[in-house]
Amino acid sequence: MFPANRPRRLRRDAFSRAMVREHRLSPADFILPVFVHDIPGRAPIPSMPGVERLSIDELLKVGEQALELGVPALDIFPVIHPAAKSLDAAEAFNPEGLAQRAVRALKARLPELGVMTDVALDPYTVHGQDGIIDEHGYVQNDITTEILVKQSLSHAEAGVDIVSPSDMMDGRVGAIRNALEAAGHIHTRIMAYSAKYASAFYGPFRDALGSAGNLGKSDKFNYQMDPANGDEALREVALDIAEGADMVMVKPGLPYLDVLWRVKQEFRMPTFAYQVSGEYAMIKAAAQNGWLDHDKVMMESLIAFKRAGADGVLTYFALDAARLLRQHG
Ligand code: PBG
Predict the structure, then answer these.
(1) Sign (positive/negative) of CA torsion 54, 58, 63, 66?
(2) ipTM for the complex shown
């Protein structure tokens, strides 16, 4: 008796593996998140080895590299000076704010590069929460949404291509869409952080923004999703689509591939995943110890997103992975 099927036949040689490969990565699959600060030069982020905070001049250099490598878009995260943080987060919609200036500089110098901004108040609040809190520390939904709308409009006026609400307030996608339309910004795309979980994997990001200290021991469970929930993600995505989102996102990435898969299967929308700071830090730390092969694990993690149905991945590895794809195809 012989085995009726020998799946290993197709695995034997590189040519036949290439013939039956189901998914491929390309630089166009990546969006690079970038941290921008208001001082000259670059500054390392210890918990995110290889990632630096950038001045606007340095950001333009990174933007050029992204364009050159075929990475279609950057996502801007401003590091706000403590003196500009407040309870009402008014700096978020300052037309001369750091995010707004970064957008204008990128669109002036590199008009073909897609520019995306995060819409949320955590860089701007003294307590590091994503919204306006009441006397109990509870983030108030509708008041916060009004400020998110102003923030989005100020980004659109600066010329941003995509606004990306990451705050998880109810109804904010509809409010932002309506205000953008009313102001004539009919082309501004919305990538909604639709299923965003209250995750401890955001730790290094909060170090990068300097908001970890502000947040202290408090958490974001009253607006970000419970990691125990899957069906709820589908309800959140349905709401954001109905409210006018062009693209939806699941965040974090690898620990939530089941959610990504379900969202893609259910809605067939342009669907993105965010490989967050903590996921990046884990791979970097293990690689620095010699415990994992950096490049192989990076590429394996990225192809996993494609297999699970992602149309693209926000990843701090974007430029490294694009370079590797250019070298090896
Ligand atoms: C802001 C925001 C966060 C991240 C993206 N946008 C942090 C948070 O919600 O606390 C995390 C990204 C990362 O960890 O890489 N709302």
Answers:
(1) negative
(2) 0.97
